[in-house]
Amino acid sequence: EAGVAQSPRYKIIEKRQSVAFWCNPISGHATLYWYQQILGQGPKLLIQFQNNGVVDDSQLPKDRFSAERLKGVDSTLKIQPAKLEDSAVYLCASSLERVGLGTQYFGPGTRLLVL
Amino acid sequence: EDQVTQSPEALRLQEGESSSLNCSYTVSGLRGLFWYRQDPGKGPEFLFTLYSAGEEKEKERLKATLTKKESFLHITAPKPEDSATYLCAVRTDKLIFGTGTRLQVFP
To answer: For chain A, what is the radius of gyration of the CA atoms?
Structure first.
């Protein structure tokens, strides 16, 4: 069974530029999550989707971050404009069960460096 | 406020030297405790889920246990390939991660 796919794997941009990350969850998984992991810390949830609806985006900095999950499958996370403190690994995860249940399986992450 | 604390931050073991990693938590409405392994440059890899105090799970050299306030990940006779960061996460309405324990096992 294929795992969670993410692209790109690495991205370097300058501050105030915009960037987008893509995630394809495990086939059949209804729930999708985006996390931010700063070096030396554990992942922090940014947003979670149930199918194509947002369940929780309370920790998403909405002035610069946006995310969508069209057709309830793939998802994109965008940062516009980027700040230095956005340098981190952005992890996508998916789970079979609805939000709040089930095991989350993670992709390899996208490593973002903002200069 | 929900909180997850892992200790130690880093642990160096010689091959074969057993030890334990700790995850203590203060949350309201625990709906499961998860252990993940994370290798450098990769995403977290699922290891175990524990739901109730007294529960234990085992996989190869790893054994996870749970009490009402903490969980332990016991590593028996570790090998160099067990070197990784081990993350603990508790689930309320979302997953809340600790900062992890960086384990190094040297020959």
So the answer is: 13
Q: Give A66's contacts (C-beta < 8 A, 6+ positions apart).
A: A77, A78, A80
CB contact under 8 A, B44 and A48: no
CB contact under 8 A, A42 and B31: no
Q: Going by C-beta distance under 8 Å and a sequence separation of 6 or more, which residues neighbour residue B78?
A: B13, B15, B16, B17, B18, B19, B61, B103, B105
Instruction: Give the residue on B whose Cα is nearest the Cα of A41.
Output: B99
Query: Does the pLDDT at position A79 exceed 80?
Result: yes
According to the model, what pLDDT value does residue A19 have?
A: 98
Cross-chain Cβ contact B46/A104 below 8 Å: yes
- Quote the percentage of chain A above a pLDDT of 90: 85
Token couple for B53? 């105090």
Residue A10: which H helix or E strand, with range?
strand A10-13
Instruction: Please check the confidence at residue A1 and state whether its pLDDT lies above 70.
Output: no
Q: Indicate the DSSP class of residue B24.
A: E
Give the tens place of pLDDT for each residue, B25-68. Answer: 998 888 899 999 999 999 999 999 999 999 999 999 999 999 98
Inspect the interface and report whether the beta carbons of B94 and A56 lie closer than 8 Å: yes
User: What are the chain B neighbours of A105 within 8 Å (beta carbons)?
Assistant: 46
Whether the link from the prior residue into A81 is cis, omega within 30° of 0, is yes
